[in-house]
Specification:
The structure holds two protein chains of two kinds. Chain A is 39% helix and 20% strand. Chain A has eleven helices and twelve strands. In chain A, strands 4-5-6-1-7-8 form a six-stranded mixed sheet, sandwiched between helices. A four-stranded antiparallel sheet of chain A has the order 10-11-9-12, with helices on one face. In chain A, helix 3 crosses helix 4, helix 6 crosses helix 7 and helix 9 crosses helix 10. In chain A, 45% of the residues are buried. By secondary structure, chain B is an all-alpha fold. Chain B has one domain. The radius of gyration of chain B is 25 Å and the shape is globular. The termini of chain B are far apart. Classes of the chains: A alpha/beta, B mainly alpha. At the A-B interface, helix 2, helix 3 and helix 4 of A face helix 2 and helix 6 of B.
Chain lengths: 290, 302
């Protein structure tokens, strides 16, 4: 079975997002980059090391945050992260110091002395992130760091990911099945599906290619669509909402004018990213050869 | 809320005041040997609940106390009465309390390996500069050390009691060292058996039950076989039954090679028996290690 196939991609430093539906091969790709899964063919190098032959050298300078739960319940976050830092080769005193630093950065306070069995999902994700940063890696691979978090927790986590890439100066490769999330924090996005590359581009390109305005009006949405269409805007109903494909800034004015003309109230205007499915159906022409 | 209150709350809420920014680490990064040692130390401490949650300390502490109690009483009697001989011999001490050792092994071998399997910690280990064999070696050494401590502490208490009772060190030390040698061997054999069984399943309870069952059944079968053989009057056969249980196996080796008094069984018959007992012990340790290496080669990193 092919998990990741014919994937050729060159990832630049900074925060890079890896997007794909569940089962697209994101986690498999990360494990290959750690030198843990052999590729049947092809090659990859991380920080200048070949993944096939120099796995240990890579793993010394790379941090990895797995997608699934990986925390034993009977130790405190402090003990655990110290142990993990030592396993990355840090002497005990240095490991203790780094642990205190990193747990502070991820925002774990008094709880860090309590056994992790009683932690909330948000706290567990923070510890998982902390152990990936404990040895001050040059690159961190974060597998679905926002998994299971509530909206506020997601925002915090994404903020942290952004800080790691900018303030901390650590390159980040972060996966998610939600393109919208990654757009907010990534410099570039790689989209894979079924193990194959769909597109790889700077985040701005993806956003530009997928500008979609979702409009909610309080009444007569059918007539509203007609009014927009007659004004030369591509609009179509989507349930109670109206989707408008933005061609330029002028379209915002036409939406406003159409609503005013009909006398209906605008409840909501939301710029929505393309859903993954749409990206898969219509990959941008230049994406495949990235 | 008035604007004044908000202004007053502002600085308190801002955690960034103390943030001195991210500091990079450019100190020493050690190699595999140091990583293995760190793994060993953490695991050996963990076998007594050190550095872990409070409740994980209870079981090992109780068992260690139970192992040491007879030694303490014996040492105290010797010291108080000024006896010229210990009321309890070093040689048979561990074997007489083998149930406690078995229970400790059953409780702590799963803590050592099933826990990592069950909670997905393996993926964090494998994503570090450590090979699978390093993990196996560190875990084996750690559990063997923990089991050894369980047996060595009471023996050492006995020695301390003997010395307090002014018994000559020259008389006590050889017996003490023989018993310690046997304890080292037994720790290696038991840790191997315990880990091989525990590593099969991520479920701790299953591991506990399997280990205790295996050790009790082996001891029981050995005891029964030995009784039957003795009644039949075949002393050699009674000796060979020692191969059936790890305790009698090591006892036989210690008896023939370290000159310790054999407590259980009739001891291995003849030179051939001694060699077979030694070979089985060595094979058992090597075999357990080999099985563990094979087992961990198949552990997926998911």
């Amino acid at each position: 079975m092919l998990a990741v196939c014919d994937l050729t991609v060159d990832v630049a430093p900074g925060v890079v997002g890896l997007v794909g539906a569940n089962g697209a091969g994101k986690s498999t790709l990360l494990k290959m980059l750690l030198g843990l899964l052999p590729a049947t063919s092809g090659s990859a190098s991380v920080l200048g090391h070949d993944v096939a032959t120099e796995g240990p050298a890579i793993r010394q300078r790379v941090g990895y945050m797995p997608e699934h739960d990986c925390l034993p319940p009977d130790v405190s976050a402090t003990e655990f992260v110290v142990h993990m830092a030592q396993l990355s080769g840090l002497p005990r005193a240095a490991a203790r110091e780094r642990t205190a630093d990193v747990l502070r950065h991820v925002g774990l306070d008094e709880e860090r002395y309590r056994p992790m069995g009683g932690y909330s999902t948000g706290m567990r994700q923070r510890v998982k992130l902390a152990q990936a940063l404990a040895h001050d890696p040059q690159l961190v691979l974060l597998d679905e760091p926002t998994n299971g978090l509530d909206p506020a927790g997601r925002d915090d986590m994404l903020g942290l990911v952004r800080r790691i890439g900018t303030e901390f100066g650590i390159s980040v490769l972060v996966t998610s099945h939600l393109l919208g999330e990654l757009e907010r924090v990534c410099d570039a996005v790689v989209v894979i599906d079924g193990g194959q590359l769909l597109r790889s581009s700077a985040t701005a390109d993806v956003t530009a290619a997928s500008a979609l305005l979702v409009v909610e009006v309080d009444a007569r949405s059918g007539e509203f669509v007609d009014a927009l269409t007659s004004a030369g805007v591509r609009a179509h109903p989507a349930g109670r909402l109206v989707e408008v494909e933005l061609a330029g800034d002028g379209d915002y004015d036409r939406v406003r004018d159409a609503a005013a003309g009909l006398g209906v109230g605008l409840v909501r205007l939301e710029q929505r990213r393309h859903r993954m499915a749409e990206l898969f159906l219509a990959p941008a022409g230049g994406g495949r050869d990235a | 809320m008035t604007p004044d209150v908000q202004a007053g709350a502002g600085p308190v809420e801002s955690g960034a005041i103390h943030d001195i920014g991210y500091r990079h680490y450019d100190g020493e990064r050690r190699g595999r040997a140091a990583v293995r040692r760190a793994m060993f130390v953490e695991s050996a401490r963990g076998a007594y609940g050190l550095g872990r949650a409070g409740r994980t300390k209870v079981m090992p502490a109780l068992l260690l106390a139970a192992m040491c109690l007879p030694a303490l009483v014996g040492a105290a009697i010797a010291a108080l009465t000024g006896a010229d001989e210990l009321p309890i011999a070093y040689g048979g001490y561990v074997l007489n309390l083998q149930v406690l050792v078995s229970v400790y092994l059953a409780a702590q071998a799963p803590v050592s390996v099933s826990r990592d399997l069950r909670f997905g910690v393996m993926s964090l280990y494998f994503s570090r500069p450590m090979e699978r064999i390093d993990y196996v070696l560190a875990k084996y050494a750690a559990l063997a050390t923990a089991v050894l401590v369980l047996m060595a502490l009471p023996l050492t208490i006995l020695l301390a009691g003997a010395l307090l009772a002014k018994m000559p060190l020259g008389e006590q030390l050889p017996d003490y060292l023989r018993a310690m040698g046997a304890a080292v061997l037994l720790a290696l054999v038991l840790a191997g058996i315990g880990l091989v069984i525990a590593a099969v399943t991520p479920r701790r309870g299953l591991g506990v039950a399997a280990i205790i069952a295996v050790l009790l059944v082996l001891s029981g079968v050995q005891g029964a076989a030995q009784v039957i053989a003795t009644e039949q009057g075949t002393r050699d056969a009674a000796g060979w039954t020692g191969l059936l249980s790890p305790y009698t196996l090591v006892d036989g080796v210690a008896h023939r090679f370290l000159g310790q008094d054999s407590v259980l069984g009739a001891g291995p018959p003849g030179t051939a028996g001694a060699l077979v007992f030694a070979a089985v012990t060595a094979l058992l340790v090597a075999g357990c290690l080999g099985l563990l290496v094979l087992r961990y080669r198949r552990v997926s990193i998911s």
